[in-house]
Amino acid sequence: MKRLLSIELQKIWLNKASRVLTLTYFILLSFIALIASIKFDIGFFKFHLADMGIFNFPFIWHFNTYIAAWLKFFLAIVIVSMMANEYSYGTLKQNLIDGMSKKEFILSKFLTVLLFAFVSTIFVFIMSLLLGLSFSSYTETSIIFSDLEYLIAFFVKLVGFFSFCLFLGILVKRSAFALGFLLVWSIVEGIAKGILTFKIFPDSDIPSYITQFFPLESMSNLISEPFTRLSVVKNIGTQIGVDGIKDYDVHFSAIIIVLLWSLFFMFSSYKLLKSRDL
What is the pTM of this model? Predict the structure, then answer.
């Protein structure tokens, strides 16, 4: 496994575009820390994001994983390009000629997906811990290390999304078309969700039950938006008569659904590659 992973990392690092995108991804992740410096002071109006409690433990685990998840598209481009380059440069065929089996080839890609997801999760964990220790009003150990399930959800979300991107890269063979397919698929899911919610099953829980099994929707469900958890937002909602009760928890069922999709995408990638005459 170490040999397979080293081969993939070497391919990524030797490709200038992939190297730049990967570094950009981790640099942008670190920019989450700059949110703490956002401050407006205009007369009586004072606005400082750090003072709103976004870096308080344990809320910071929810907030940072949600924000960091939006940056996954940078690594998605790397993964799709990684697969497209195998066809463009003929390295896939050369690897097979050199004795690598198709099973090993897919395994090397999946290991890369797991590594990207794992390193991203560790990066967000360390960054969130440092920010929390610097700005949080609550620094008791029991509070600091509560709600860490958001990091698990973040890891699973990245594995699922990257596995989907890898499958599209194998299916379409061209990075631009694969990313275009990803965009089209997200639109299709959105339209299907809208039809189910507003046309077929209005005022019902059935649409959410059905759409939780959609690939991208299931990944989105892992980490719900955190902004309405902030006390300042809740106070505004109370003043205008909006007292919404929302479920912010990470559910085990959501994790299982995404893991099953990940396995499906990896198995489908292998079957697709195996059936092709290269």
Answer: 0.90
